[in-house]
Each structure stands twice: as structure tokens, then as C-alpha cells.
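Per reviewer request, we include the raw input and output of the structure prediction for the construct analysed in the revised manuscript.
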Amino acid sequence: MATVSFAMSPSLTTSLQHQSSMLQKRWNIRVSRMSKLKLFTSITLIERKRRRTLICAASQDAEEAFRKTVEMDRLIDTLRDANPKGLQQLVVENVLAFNEGFWIRLAARTDTCKSEDDKRDYEELATSVMNIVDLLVHKTHEKIESATDVLKAVLKPVIDGVEEISWPPRDPEALKLMEKEIIRREQEGQLDEGFLAEVSAQLRQSKEDGDKPGLEAMLQKVLQLYASRVLSKRSYAKKGNEVLKASSFLRP
């Protein structure tokens, strides 16, 4: 069989190579543009989502701020309309509401008053509320300090001069002195709910620390003595049909 061969002229070959090169360049440019377009589209979508999220967050923040402002205005109006006795009660019931935001809002309303009488009323209200809040804080501090001092006095016979607290105490007389101190404090009316809260708080802290079993047992004993002296006079609990003394249901 005869073989037929074709021979292209050099000029034709060069022309084809040139066209192929141009097509390749155009293809590369097109691919590059498509990639950039996809990247731009992705960035645009991400940016839109981010803006939408920011707008939603800003909207929620604005709604929350508006809601708080309405609540503060309602409280301010209620306080303003209350008589002196009712004002004290309202301050006690809403003591946690008197934060920085409340005072800023009250100052803003004072500044925007149209009459001097209204402005004077707001200023007097602010002074009254501040005085009541200060009194509440002072009384709370006094009560906490008083309860702490009473507990220290009760525990003093057992822990005084002892490097490591142990239970029962090495000196039997120390326990008797602690019981006498509890009796004396109860007769003086110092074993109130504040004292009970202080003992419970110290006991909870001792359990969390876990490194003072002697102190933990001692505080539990104080609770039992407290129950036998105070709670048994005014309360009892039931377990089934059995009546339990307060010292029983406080025992760990």
C-alpha cells in the first residue's frame, strides 16, 4: 500500500501555532475572569450576610434598649406618684433596678422638663431614692457584720488558741462554753435569720474548700444548737406520720 504524506509549508505551520497560542491566551483570560467573578460573588454574598446579621443585631439591641427605657420610665412614674411610705416600699422591692442606667434616665427626664416645678419634683425624687438606697445598703452591711461577729463569738471557745480545728474539740469544756454562748445570744435576740444565713454560707464555703473537716463539723453543730434553741419554738417538720424536731431535719 502506498503511503500518502502531506507536507505543510512553514508559513502555514507558523500561522496555526499563532492561532493556537491566541486561543489559549483568550481561554486563560476567560477562566481568570470567571474565577474572579465567582470570588467577587462569594465575597458579595458573605458581605450581604454579614450586613444582614449586623442589622438584625442592631435592631435587637435597639428593641432591648427601648424596652428597658419603657420599664425605667414606668418605674420613675410609679415612684413619683407614691407617698413617702409607699416610696420606701417601692425602693425596697426594686432595689436592684437602681443601677447606672436608671440614674442616667432620671437625669435625662429632669433635664427635659418644661417647667421648673416638674424639674424640682424630679430632683427631690432623686434625692429621696438615693437616701433610701443608701440606708438599705448601710443596714445590710450592719446586719452582715453583726451576724459575722455573733458567729465568731459563738465559735471562740472552740477555736481560740487552736492551730488546727478538730472535732470534737480536745477540751470538753470548750463545747459547753460554745453552747452557753449560743443560749446567751439567743436570749438577747441575736440568733436571727441573718445569723442562720451566715452560718449556712460559712458551712457551704467549708464544704467547697474540703480542707477543713473540723470547721465543717463545728458549723453543723452550731446549726443543730440553733435549731434546738430557736426553730423548735416555732416550727416542726414531718417525715411520714412522724414529727421531727428542727434539730433533726437540719442535721446533715
